């Protein structure tokens, strides 16, 4: 069983919980997810099966799209609605749509973020959330992430009892903390803030429309139609450049051979394809000029 199962992760489960559940449902061990989603977040979670686990990191590294909500008026320990209140400051002025749009535009591009204390980032061998639960504050390494697009969603603002909320849509790189982005939006508007809602609506080339729920998956398995919802591993690396192979090169590539660099070789990592089947991922040799080498061999069976 090789391929990608686009799962709609429900609230209440971790990404690891989903992998464990699918292993039992499909009675297979080679299962992996493609990017952690917090338990209180639902959304697109591509699950890799069999040989497709080899390309899980490429889906994880590809961009994600989220739809979320920022609430101004108080911040929390976890930077989302589940945490304890850290700072409270009621919104005492009108905040316009134009002002919000200006702030969102200012956070588009490459930005620097400090991971929240309640996160899985490791410092000195321990997860930050382990320090947080023990009440220990540690220095956290900042990281640069890319915000490709950040827009106001629905163009409406909700104001009640000194709290102001509005929805946003963001297309961002791997490693972006949307909780922290929500706090940054609040800071630029002059108020403590937190992320009050979040849904992942796309991961790499997988969207809401591709996904199945656990209930649907269970029914499909009972009907013996699992193959109808499994995507080939090629879809998970469709954002990479492709190099088409002839019969001779295909045999060499599936065996992981080092090859002479073609004249028309794209930059970065390239999918080596034979009759629409991805055999391997290659890159320019880091030490030898005019040579390419395999990063990963995906298939080495008879072709």
UniProtKB/TrEMBL annotation:
Role summary: Responsible for synthesis of pseudouridine from uracil-55 in the psi GC loop of transfer RNAs.
Isomerase listed as a keyword: yes
Species this chain originates from: Lederbergia citrea
Gene Ontology BP annotations: mRNA pseudouridine synthesis; tRNA pseudouridine synthesis
Domain Pseudouridine synthase II N-terminal: 23-178
Record's protein name: tRNA pseudouridine synthase B
Gene Ontology molecular function terms on file: RNA binding; tRNA pseudouridine(55) synthase activity
Keywords: Isomerase, tRNA processing
């Amino acid at each position: 069983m090789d391929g990608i199962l686009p799962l709609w992760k429900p609230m209440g489960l971790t990404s690891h919980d989903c992998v464990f559940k699918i292993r039992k449902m499909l009675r297979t061990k080679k299962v992996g997810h493609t990017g952690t989603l917090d338990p209180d977040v639902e959304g697109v979670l591509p699950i890799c099966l069999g040989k497709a686990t080899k390309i899980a990191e490429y889906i994880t590294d590809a961009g994600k799209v989220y739809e979320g909500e920022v609430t101004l008026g108080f911040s929390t320990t976890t930077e989302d609605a589940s945490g304890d209140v850290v700072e409270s400051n009621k919104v005492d002025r009108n905040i316009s749509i134009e002002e919000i749009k200006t702030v969102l535009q200012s956070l588009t591009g490459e930005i620097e973020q400090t991971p929240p204390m309640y996160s899985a980032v490791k410092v000195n061998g321990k997860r930050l959330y382990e320090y947080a639960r023990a009440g220990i504050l540690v220095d956290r390494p900042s990281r640069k992430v890319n915000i490709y697009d950040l827009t106001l969603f629905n163009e409406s603002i909700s104001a009640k009892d000194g709290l102001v909320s509005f929805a946003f849509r963001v297309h961002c790189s791997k490693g972006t903390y949307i909780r922290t982005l929500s706090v940054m939006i609040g800071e630029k508007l002059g108020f403590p803030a937190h992320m009050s809602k979040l849904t992942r609506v796309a991961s790499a080339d997988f969207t809401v429309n591709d996904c199945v729920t656990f209930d649907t998956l269970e029914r499909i398995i009972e009907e013996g139609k699992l193959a109808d919802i499994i995507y080939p591993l090629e879809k998970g690396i469709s954002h990479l450049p492709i190099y088409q192979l002839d019969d001779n090169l295909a045999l060499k590539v599936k065996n992981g051979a080092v090859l002479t660099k073609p004249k028309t070789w794209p930059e970065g990592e390239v999918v080596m394809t034979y009759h629409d089947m991805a055999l391997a991922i290659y890159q320019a040799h880091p030490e030898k000029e005019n040579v390419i080498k395999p990063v990963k061999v995906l298939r080495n069976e008879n072709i």
